[in-house]
Amino acid sequence: MKRTLASETVKQLGEKVSLSGFVGGRRDHGKIVFLDLRDRSGVVQLVIAKDLIDVRNEDVIEATGVVQKRPEAMINPKLATGTIEVALESMTLLSKSRELPLPIDTDGYEINEEVRLKYRYLDLRRPRLQKNIKLRSALVDRIRQFLFSKDFTEIETPLLTKSTPEGSRDFLVPSRMQPGKFYALPQSPQQYKQLLMAAGFERYFQIARCLRDEDLRADRGFEHTQVDIEMSFVEREDVMALDEEMITTVVESLGYKIKEKPFPVFTYEESMKRFGADKFDLRMDEDKKKGILAFAWVVDFPFFEKTDQPADGSKEGWTFTHNPFSMPKKEHKEWLLSKKNIDKILTTQYDLVCNGYEVGGGSIRGHEPEILHAVFSVMGYEDKKIEEQFGHMLQAFRYGVPPHGGLAHGIERLLMTLTGEPYLREVVAFPMTSGGQTSIMDAPSFVADEQLAELGIQTFSESHSSSLYEKIITLLESAKVSYEQTEHERVVTSEDAARVRNAPLSEGAKALIFYEDESPVMLVIAADLKVDTKLVKSLHGIKNLRMATPVEVKKVSGVDIGAVPPFGNLFRIPVYMDEGLRRNDMIVFNAGLHTKSVRMKERDYESLVKPVVELFSKNVNPE
Ligand code: ASP
User: Fold this and answer.
1) How many structural domains are present in the chain?
2) pLDDT tops 60 at residue 461
3) Which among 169, 174, 211, 593 is placed 20 to 30 Å from 603, CA to CA?
4) pTM score of the predicted model
């Protein structure tokens, strides 16, 4: 039977329908049970004789029944299908649900962020988020429709690219084919969209992902999506007018009201004087209640501002306020070219503000090579560096480039103003936690050493010791091995370690690093025993052994002597274990840190690390 959506049932009174969806709620009334069936279109009530069913909330079902009028007293005016119900005839359980780890029938603000994001696929079932995510889709759809109607071409630009100075830290991606070199993820498609103007497309747009490694805030994430626009043969007012028409058309078509049209325009100076900031909220309390949108433009920003970290490494210099690719205002072009009155040079930048947020911004670009060069020169870049980093732009501008300008809107910020949501995560399907952890999947995460080796990467950062510790714990966890971890005062010798751990010295697993010619190997021995060099020399396949220096130990393991764990496999070196370690059931060792020890079964250790087990100790008591 063809599937009917919940919302369509109202038009099918008296007909037999087949519905599919989640069980959204269950109300037992004696012999009769009411179930809410929820699908993408909404909710419809099913009426069932009690003995017919055994389902609970969030089970996924297929239900067949006849649409009937509800008794007068049972009509629910709040529900689109509130006048009808479906008298169930048969039902198939498609998927069973366990009890949910979080409620989904509330607005969810009260639930801990980590729990919500861990189970984001459940969290997203809540009506508020369904609405937000669908609004996001509709917003992007209307924007596309508008731009296509104005003869724009949608063009994708690369994600693996070269760093663009948008004022943030880059996310870097190591190159496997050219070890030691890196791609940068784009902070915005700025340079490519300008190159598309050089290519003659004239009207470009893209729904573009932008990545910036900045500290996270309520309204700022590592990734965001922009409506990114660029146009040729335009002046500042042309771009602003097109954009204003787009924003007005789109948000009004979605049912929103705009406070003032055309959008008021403030100079930067005026806005600082009036509002003490370059983003502000023009709504009265009454407007806020009605969900009205108060847009305004801000123009005439200073091009440069002072910085104590200029590109030339000196103590004081200049940096851009908005976008280094911008054109200064006509009357200030000469100042820029002759590097005069830097503090007074104004840029063609325009920012769009709405309800206190900056929801967009852009500029007319400096399409003359001399202008672009002068901007970077003011900022302390030497000619060589300019050529190195932006030579491709200067070059492109030397083959005829239409004057151009554009702008970009952050989709999430726009949505936050539309919905009144205070956090970015409420308008993004799979956001990160405020600590930068991804939803559901645990990223960032450690990767296999093989992957790092393939990329020519060794991680010897300050945090290596604690990441090594994490690695060991992760390894033990994923192997489902039981272990105890203890935190204690800083210890370096095995004797001190045994004392603070309150464990026999013989349980201590001492990891020693030796060199066999150029190759490091690890010898693991019980802390109460000594390495017998003669025996070591006769070890299976090993000759010319010498002990590693402290610097070499650090180089190989990334940690200092006294903290090296017996997991040589984690630094990809062969591991030899002395038989003497088998005298105890348990072993204990410093796990990469002088202040943390892990105690586990000797047997588990062997099965995880798979050392070559031989006898190379003195004073072994075989028992
Ligand atoms: N690239 C700018 C930004 O991401 C927007 C623009 O000037 O078009 O903020």
Assistant:
1) 3
2) no
3) 593
4) 0.76
